[in-house]
Design goal:
Layout (H helix, E strand, L loop, with lengths): L1 E3 H7 L5 H9 L3 E3 L2 E2 L6 E3 L5 E3 L2 E2 L8 E6 L27 E3 L7 E7 L2 H8 L7 E7 L5 H9 L12 E6 L2 E6 L6 H8 L4 E9 L2 E2 L8 E3 L2
Parallel strand pairs: 9-13
Antiparallel strand pairs: 1-4, 2-3, 2-5, 5-6, 7-9, 7-15, 8-9, 10-12, 10-13, 11-12, 13-14
This protein binds uracil.
Length: 222
């Protein structure tokens, strides 16, 4: 079957279509040992060999979409050189999948995995403003003033956060919905208003909800 090279690269899970175009422009993509320069190039998925930076791309069998209830103590990375526990160790997929965004080591909850580069890009690209919902548990006072500040933007070290949806859901729990994803953003937002985070859990990413999925359990979503 003939398909556009950038589509093939994205569907192999290597990266998004947009990134694939950049790789082609940067002369990183080889088809049957010939460097490809044309963005619109089509390839024969049965017979052509596509190589990027020494990696031979496999023809994707099917797209995979998985959600994990990540436990604390696991880092979100594909390759772990220092043999710390990594979320990818909890995924028993034959095909290569990668996480859509990150949760830091001490954060638990909803983490998505796929081999669909375009879908991952859609979910992660900052311009798409996809909402992510977190539950913060704290032993600090949750005052109206702190909620107001969190809603309207706080300084997390040279960056003022965008508007967020914030509500107190019990004496010591807050729900925070952000549409951006700076490193450790929720923890840094809480720190900026003197809210001590005891536990942080993501319960929703876009319109995908963690629901009753148990810790360490995986489920297919689509
Ligand atoms: N914000 C954080 O502080 N940590 C995460 O893992 C995700 C968002």
């Amino acid at each position: 079957m003939l398909v556009r090279l950038n589509k093939f690269i994205a569907e192999s899970g290597y990266c998004s279509r947009r990134k694939a175009d950049e790789l082609i422009k940067n002369k990183k993509v080889y088809v049957n040992d010939v460097c490809i320069l044309e963005l619109g190039t089509k390839i024969d998925t049965e017979n052509d060999k596509v190589v990027i930076d020494g990696n031979i791309l496999k023809k994707p069998q099917e797209n995979i979409y998985l959600m994990l209830n990540k436990p604390k103590g696991y880092i979100t990375t594909n390759k772990e050189q220092f043999s710390r526990k990594a979320t990818i160790d909890l995924i028993k997929e034959e095909q290569r999948v990668f996480p859509i965004g990150r949760l830091d080591k001490d954060t638990e909850g909803l983490l998505l995995f796929t081999n669909d580069g375009d879908f991952a890009n859609l979910m992660m690209h900052p311009s798409h403003l996809i909402e992510k919902t977190y539950i913060v548990e704290t032993d600090s006072d949750i005052t109206k003033e702190k909620i107001y500040k969190l809603k309207n933007g706080v300084d997390i070290g040279g960056y003022i956060t965008r508007e967020a949806k914030v509500r107190k859901i019990s004496k010591n729990r807050l729900e925070i919905v952000i549409s951006e994803g700076k490193n450790r953003q929720v923890r840094r937002m809480c720190q900026a208003v003197d809210i001590n985070v005891i536990n942080l859990k993501r319960i929703k990413y876009g319109n995908i909800e963690l629901g009753n999925l148990k810790l360490r359990r995986l489920q297919i979503f689509n």
